[in-house]
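Throughout this chapter, every protein is written as a compact record of paired, labelled lines. An example of such a record is reproduced below:
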Amino acid sequence: MLGTLTMLPPLSIDISLPGLPLIARALGAPPVLLQSTLSAFILAFGAGQLVLGPLSDRYGRRPVLLWGLALYALAGAGCTLVTDARVLVALRLLQGFGACAGTVCARAIAHDLSKDRAGAAFRQSVLTSVNSLAPVVAPLLGAAILATLGWRSLYGVLAVVGLVLVALVAVLVPETSPLKAANVIVAYRRVLRLPRTLGLMLLASASFFGFFPLIAGSPFALISELHLSSTQFAFAFAINALAFIVAAALSARLARVVDPEVLLASGVALVFVATILAWSADTYFPSVAGFIATWSLYAFGVAFTTPGAFAALLHTARGDAGLAAGLLGATQMLSGALGGTLSGARSGPPTTTLGLFALIGGTGVAAGYLLSRRPTRNRDLADPQT
């Protein structure tokens, strides 16, 4: 149930991708304006977590989930009726804000239900593994809907999904928040002063700063520069998605038997090695095999670091888990969007650009992890009370 809630953002973004050119023609709008619908969704989804996370600590997970999902469904229904692309951008902004309630509350609830950090790491890994299915399924679902029902039904399906989730949350999800009635500014100050917060924020943001450009820029690298066909590119993208899914599932299984700190450190090491290899291969020996291999290794590492970072910070934040989840989630998404924008604006061969951004991301991940470990001894990392 919680994993399904975290699927809303990739589902909402990827399901519309096949229809963007058609929507632009239907609404008489330039393609760049339709691309802004994605940017608006990502911006609202990232920034909204900074608001809804602390609200879920104060007023409860269920109210924030129900209101957020209701907004998501209403915005989706509105998208089916638009005749102006600018209105569509505004509605997608609202939809992104509503979607972030699902992700931030799901991660906070997973923490609330965990007795220790190992349990939290396991649940966070499960959420990541379920979430990773959406980028594989959503484009195929979008293409099928577009071919049979038309582009307005793309958003209609999202509205129905939102309504179904409202009903499921109302029936299945209990209230798990400790309901701390604290001032939000005081709560943010408290979380930011925790020994590991800044390091884990750098780790999470840097991983997506390097990973988003690889996702967004992969068509230009593999199709335009390395001359793959669209079908071959689809297979290459599937390999990367499969690496992420396998890694997330493996992380969930290992979280039951391996120290969560070891899993987090392993993910950091994989990301760092992958980005060095990516930069070297893409800069000096660009090839399809090298690009796919290093991209998949990077995805494998990110699938370990993401649940590990959330479990580590939420375990120490305790009663401020919603705020902490929103803080990490917002830094991830906003830095990923920044990385994608900056890489798209850089001239030169796409493989060289993506290799450089991967290296920047990997270096930031390693630096963030080292920073997060500095204030505490190894034996104290799992216990917020020591």
